[in-house]
Write a structure and sequence with these properties.
The chain is α/β, with parallel strands linked by helices. It has helices spanning 36-49, 63-77, 101-115, 134-147, 161-169, 192-199, 232-244, 247-264, 268-277, 297-301, 310-320, 326-330; strands at 8-12, 15-18, 20-23, 53-55, 87-92, 120-125, 151-157, 176-180, 202-206, 282-288. The protein has an 8-stranded parallel barrel with strand order 3-4-5-6-7-8-9-10, surrounded by 4 helices. α2 (63-77) packs across α3, α3 packs across α4 (134-147) and α8 runs antiparallel to α11. The chain starts with 7 loop residues before the first strand and ends in an 8-residue tail after the last helix. The structure holds NADP nicotinamide-adenine-dinucleotide phosphate (NAP). NADP nicotinamide-adenine-dinucleotide phosphate binds at residues 23-26, 55, 157-158, 178, 206-212, 215, 233, 267, 269, 286-288, 290, 294, 296, 299-300.
């Protein structure tokens, strides 16, 4: 299997990614036990299939170490010169505290060493508490480390539109913001996407397939209890569905998506992913990968094999219109973490 050229997206003039990124929260332990050797073997399958871009974080269990091991084995199998084919985007999610140059430099140094790289492709910064303005200190030091060659591109995760604006106003150059975005959670469409499009900032999205809930597996199924949902991801997005409009409305959505999916000869998840990839400012959708446990490579590849037409949106919109306003209920992107 190889992905079509349409699967590639130029995130910056010097950085091309796969439009579906492999999410590594799923190796953290909260989504089933991961065998490290098997996980790294599996990373080769993703890469060889064309899924060359990884999304990880300092706190996703062994994720950064797995990238390090994958790169070592990749260089041994191929050659050092081909390591540039791999894109690995990590995050720094610090506990609030003083954001001095040594604190920031040490955190970046740990990620560099775990991932076995001289420079981070993309560092996505998260901040827990807007009342504490030291996120700006951290970002200024990160920008300095970018100039020093330790970070190629600086990015954010879970920042809302207001604070993204504040960061830009402080002269800090940002490449992307990683946010939850799906047919259920469309908060980014309200203000974030337009702001990003205007400022040349890309959106990388998660939760787009709702932990797997947005699939045939849950079509026609009675409402699962928390105990029925085996991964932290499924539990997280079931809560989002409850806030959005509940299980009965979600079943209506799955039924409509199934009709659209059948028309295109693809799966429900493909419709969910394609619909978000087509939104303004979106550069990539991250899909969680339970490495060595289960994979959906061939199924997810089908996202790049069709296009949605206006009639498809006409079929889905009336159901989405019945949902609650998540922006009013929760707040802008990332508010659920604060
Ligand atoms: N910045 C943040 O705060 C944040 C938060 C959450 C996630 N993330 C990032 O986003 C990534 C994705 O995590 P997520 O929690 O949002 O999960 P997700 O991508 O919504 O769901 C992943 C799950 O979807 C299922 N799936 C994938 N392709 C499918 C297909 N074609 N058909 C049916 N099911 C399919 C798989 O379930 P099975 O394995 O059960 O088959 C997979 O484990 C994370 O790894 C992380 O990198 C970031």
């Amino acid at each position: 299997m190889s992905l079509p050229a349409a699967s590639r997206h130029r995130l910056t003039p010097d950085l091309e990614i796969c439009g579906i990124l492999n999410g590594m929260w799923q190796v953290s332990g909260a989504h089933g036990r991961i065998d490290r050797d098997r996980a790294v073997d599996e990373m080769f399958r993703y890469h060889d299939a064309g899924f060359t871009t990884w999304d990880l974080a300092d706190h996703y269990g062994p994720a950064e170490d797995l990238i390090g091991e994958f790169r070592r084995r990749f260089a041994a199998r191929h050659c050092e010169g081909r390591l540039g084919e791999i894109q690995a985007f990590t995050k720094w999610v610090p506990y609030p505290g003083p954001m001095t140059r040594p604190v920031v430099e040490q955190a970046v140094g740990i990620s560099l060493s775990r991932m076995g790289v001289d420079r981070l492709d993309l560092l996505q910064f998260h901040w827990w508490d807007y009342a504490d303005p030291r996120y700006l200190d951290a970002l200024k030091h990160l920008a300095d480390l970018r100039e020093a060659g330790k970070i190629r591109h600086l990015a954010l995760t879970n920042f809302d539109t207001e604070h993204l604006h504040r960061i830009i106003a402080n002269g800090i150059r940002i490449v992307s913001n990683q946010v939850q975005y799906s047919l259920v959670d469309r908060r980014p469409a309200v203000g974030m996407a337009a702001f990003c499009a205007e400022h040349g900032i890309a959106l990388l999205t998660y939760g787009t397939v709702l932990g797997g809930l947005l699939s045939e597996k849950y079509l026609g199924r009675p409402e699962p209890s928390r105990a029925d949902l085996a991964t932290a991801s499924l539990q997280k997005y079931k809560q989002m569905i409850d806030a959005w409009g509940g299980w009965a409305l979600f079943q209506e959505l799955l039924q409509a998506l199934k009709r659209v999916a059948d028309k295109h000869g693809v799966g429900i998840a493909n419709i969910g992913v394609r619909s978000i990839l087509d939104q303004s400012a979106v550069a990539g959708v991250i899909i969680g990968a339970r490495l060595g446990i289960v994979e959906h490579l061939a199924a997810d590849a089908r996202t790049f094999a069709f296009t949605l037409d206006p009639a498809d949106y006409v079929a889905i919109e009336p159901i989405l219109a019945k949902s609650r306003d998540l922006l009013a209920l929760i707040g802008d992107c990332g508010a659920e973490y604060r």
